[in-house]
Specification:
Length: 339
């Protein structure tokens, strides 16, 4: 059954069909001992950005212009806006501003370094209290009886950078999450500028910050423009930070970090509900959204796309392998379906 068949099923009789459902196609098969037991539907958009490509489209799967919510894959674009407003960060702390970090000790210390540099503290953070996202860091916090806190939540680097941006620009820190705040208005305009798509919706992300909608093609275009930007520009500074400090963008053994470490020069960021975008230094870029919200096929899809572009080697193959287990042992794999 295709996504179009699903959209015509009695389940949707008399009700609007979500555009993302109507535009989705199979992207990955989950195979167990030779049998396909499940299929991930979604959309893949790819573009080639830059002077040598002139935003030339590359092959796609599904409808690349469907409206969707990019979740935390939008963070590098949000960070571009912060730099445009005068945020003074580079290196690992700028990578942390783009991160969905694991909440490991250095991540938490880094967030506090951003806050301290702006004369702020943990108490100024407005993101959702949580425990660390990383498995080991989260287990350690629970074992120690540490309560959920904004500084431990995976988006705290972004929120600390937002607060520091307000201080640098002379904007009030109170209400910095309000979509009408000057910071969020600049972020919205920057997202539109980089993606070439006017956000179709403004909603609230899981961390409490505004989330601006775009399209898979638009998100890919934004990543491509960051990847080819000149050094020293806001976009170029983001690209350098992510390329140079991939651990700060994710954490130990996180798929997004492993992909960045496997492909020198890759600018890559994942997001909740099965979103990932990446771009190479030559401007080739892609964005993928998985319809069921699963992150499971993302590294497989990313590795397959990059390998198809002639990039990578053993490290990328390892980063893109997702085994299916039976009694704790591999009995199958997740396979990309991109032909």
């Amino acid at each position: 059954m295709t996504s179009a068949d699903t959209a015509r099923s009695p389940m949707y009789a008399g009700t609007p069909v979500p555009p993302v459902l109507a535009g989705a196609v199979p992207l990955a098969h989950v195979e167990r001992d030779g049998e396909v037991e499940s299929v991930h539907l979604g959309v893949l958009a790819s573009v080639a950005t830059g002077a040598q490509h002139h935003d030339r489209p590359l092959p796609v799967r599904g409808d690349p212009d469907i409206p969707f919510l990019p979740r935390s894959a939008l963070k590098p674009l949000q960070a571009v806006a912060m730099l445009r407003a005068g945020l003074d960060l580079d290196g690992e702390l700028l990578a942390l501003a783009c991160a969905s970090h694991s909440g490991e000790p250095d991540h938490v210390t880094g967030v506090r370094r951003i806050l301290d540099g702006a004369g702020l503290t943990d108490a100024d953070l407005g993101n959702t209290p949580d425990l660390p996202l990383g498995i080991e860091a989260g287990a350690a916090a629970r074992a120690a009886g540490v309560p959920p806190a904004p500084v431990l939540q995976n988006c705290s680097g972004k929120h600390a950078a937002m607060l520091a941006t307000c201080v640098a620009a002379g904007w009030p820190i109170r209400g910095y999450r309000d979509p009408q705040h000057p910071l969020q208005q600049l972020i919205r305009a920057t997202v539109a500028d980089l993606t070439g798509v006017d956000p179709h919706v403004t909603t609230v992300d899981g961390c409490g910050a505004p989330l601006f909608g775009c399209t898979p093609a638009g998100l890919a275009r934004g990543f491509g423009r960051i990847a080819v930007a000149a050094p020293g520009t806001p976009e170029g500074r983001i690209a350098t930070a992510i390329r140079t400090h991939p651990w700060w963008v994710g954490g130990t053994d996180r798929p997004v970090t492993r992909l960045a470490q496997a492909v020198p020069g890759l600018v890559v960021k994942d997001g909740a509900e099965g979103v990932l975008a990446a771009a190479l230094p030559d401007g080739r870029a892609f964005a993928v959204t998985v319809l069921d919200g699963s992150a499971r096929p993302l590294p497989v899809l990313a590795a397959a796309i990059l390998a198809g572009w002639g990039v990578g080697g053993p490290a990328l193959a390892a980063a893109g392998r997702v085994d299916v287990l039976g009694h704790g042992q591999p009995v199958g794999r997740v396979h990309a379906v991109l032909a």
